[in-house]
Specification:
- This protein is an alpha/beta fold.
- It is built from 13 helices and 15 strands.
- The radius of gyration is 22 Å and the shape is globular.
Length: about 375
């Protein structure tokens, strides 16, 4: 019987590879290092940390811990799940996104942080800040009044949720509010970088309005740059509850990061019986035989490791990806789109400006982007 194949979970300098090896082995995972300079190990760069394929889910849970290189006893004492970040501009679609965020937070047993970012009009001149706020250039006491008005809008925004919790319409999830000065996308990304939320949940304009609205560019920047899962909810979506999400499209190009993204997604929704359609996007150099084998292996892996989900495969082609996706959407129900953000390959192909607008930002389908 052949030995189980090894897969690479990380590529580090020699020192970090040794730390990661020690950490994983302390949790019972066998680790092998590859590409080590045997004469001078400390100068090795690009050392591959390799483990058995069957150990991957456990290894991912260890590696993705924010305090990866602390002693193992600290990992076992890791704090509970971080809050979910919900950026808001007080609009109706922000309210809809917030309601879903309450359900997500209850499911994950965590809390919420509502974040509103406003731009100081004293520095920008005449400016439409949000649907609710518009100012000419002001200074002094007027600026203080503006800050108070923003705080009041946040209080009014959250008051409806307190009322819904009292009536049992929403789960009793704790939440706090943050009001900061700054460009919205920069404020969201900075908050996520410093505080590491479990997820970002954002409402977006409907398909016909996104090109004309600031929120479109805010959403694009957050999806492209954020290093935590981001869940976007269009205002015209028919999804009103997590229970409405059953059919999910997951984009893949048969790289190891796809499994990392699927594992992250599964840990967010481990008990939901999703129907997952794995949509394979081949690379320009990918051979048909290689693609067929890779798709089959991915399907088998997902069926073995994520038993709560059912899986099927669909193919699209790069030259006709938009048309192919629309055909899939016409042929079957799609409640959620999931794609890994790898900073290369699939995300670069999907999220260039033209494809982003045609394929995703013009679809009133919720979307989750998972960084890997």
């Amino acid at each position: 019987m052949s030995e189980e194949r090894l897969i690479t979970v990380a590529i580090h300098t020699y020192e970090k590879a040794i730390l990661l090896k020690t950490l994983l082995e302390s949790e019972g995972i066998t680790v092998a290092l590859q590409n080590v300079n045997l004469l001078q190990p400390v100068v090795s760069s690009g050392v591959r940390v390799r483990i058995k394929e069957s150990d991957l889910p456990l290894a991912l849970r260890i590696i993705e811990n924010s305090e990866i290189f602390l002693p193992p006893k600290r990992l076992r004492d890791a704090p509970k799940i971080d809050p979910i970040l919900v950026p808001t501009d007080f609009s109706a679609y922000s309210v809809h996104a917030a309601r879903l965020a309450f359900q997500l937070a209850a499911s994950l047993k965590t809390s919420l942080v509502f974040l509103h970012s406003y731009i100081d009009p004293f520095r920008t001149g005449n400016l439409q800040l949000t649907d609710a706020l518009s100012y000419d250039a002001i200074e002094g006491e007027d600026q203080i009044l503006m800050e108070k008005e923003v705080e009041q809008l946040m209080d009014e925004f959250t008051a409806r949720f307190r009322s819904a919790i009292k009536t049992g319409e929403l789960p009793a999830v704790k939440f706090v509010t943050e009001v900061v000065e700054g460009i919205p996308e920069e404020s969201i990304l900075e908050y996520a970088k410093v505080n590491h939320p479990a997820m970002i949940v954002m409402g977006t304009r409907g398909a016909g309005k996104k090109e004309k609205e600031l929120v479109g560019s805010v959403t694009a920047e957050v999806l492209d740059s954020c290093r935590v899962p981001a869940f976007t909810i269009p205002e015209d979506t028919k999804i009103n509850s997590l229970d409405d999400i059953r059919d999910v499209v997951f984009f893949s190009n048969l790289e190891q990061e796809d499994i990392l993204a699927m594992d992250s997604f599964y840990r967010l929704f481990p008990s939901r019986a999703f129907n997952i359609t794995l949509v394979h996007i081949p690379s320009k150099k990918e051979r048909a035989t290689t693609s067929e084998k890779g798709v089959k292996k991915l399907l088998e892996y997902c069926q073995a490791h994520y038993p709560a989900y059912s899986f099927t495969i669909k193919e699209v082609q790069l030259p006709t990806i938009v048309e192919d996706f629309r055909r899939i959407a016409q042929d079957q129900r799609i409640d959620l789109i999931v794609t890994p953000n790898k900073k290369k390959n699939i995300f670069a192909r999907l999220f260039n400006p033209s494809l982003a607008h045609k394929l995703l930002f013009h679809a009133d389908i919720p979307m989750m982007v998972v960084p890997v």
